[in-house]
Amino acid sequence: MSKKDLAVSEDFYSVQGEGPTMGAPAVFLRLKGCNLTCGGVNTVQTKSLDSGATWRCDTIETWLQGESVSNAAILSDWSSQGYLEAFKKGAHLVVTGGEPMLQQSQLVSFFEDLEIALEGLPYIEIETNGTFKPKEELLDFVAQFNVSPKLANSGMPKSKRYAGSILKWFSEYDVAFFKFVVSTDDDVATVISEYVEPFDLDSMRVFLMPAASDQEMLFKKSQWLVDVCKATGFRYSSRLQVALWDRCVGK
Predict the structure, then answer these.
(1) pLDDT tops 70 at residue 204
(2) If 56 and its partner were Cys, which of 39, 112, 134, 251 is the partner (CB 3.0–4.6 Å)?
(3) Contact between 93 and 12 (Cβ < 8 Å)
(4) Domains in the chain, please, with CATH?
């Protein structure tokens, strides 16, 4: 195992299911590990909601697992799977987790090798919970940050999920977009009072997404949330993986 190896949980080719680039063909690289356990402080053990959570991270059982893989092995596999060719046709690379910002140095190394293999870079998105500031060297490679701060409905204490100075940094970085999982009007009020107003976020950079793990719940909450977005000016984000395949991870 090299210090440059990425700890990978899974990779697959699908479409971006959420946020500002929803619908774009994308290769997903899911990295192992996270600093939060959305669903509650005991949800990893119980697989149930606790600590006031109204939703649970749908990939916990995936990002808890994984193995260290060399850049060369990833790129060789991606070449045989046709992923490198997909990048040349415009597919995005979405790095997700867990929390991929736990592996920033390894990501820089991987992006350097990917750029050599492709003789250029694909459009790279990083999904993050907004508790880690990007290193300067990472910024040269990332076209878009999808920042998804967690609310109290995640079951996580505010001391773990809310990093004001880092959120301020993202708020001042033009290619960072904010995506919030909401279940109630109170959640929306929290988005406004704790994020939009303190960091002066442009409504065009704020995406609200319904907390839903199946098609029936998604449909029900989407009708409510579209009306919220019409009233506030925020952007609505569906979850295509749920809408299209009735599953939390699209493949």
Answers:
(1) yes
(2) 39
(3) no
(4) 6-192 (3.20.20.70)
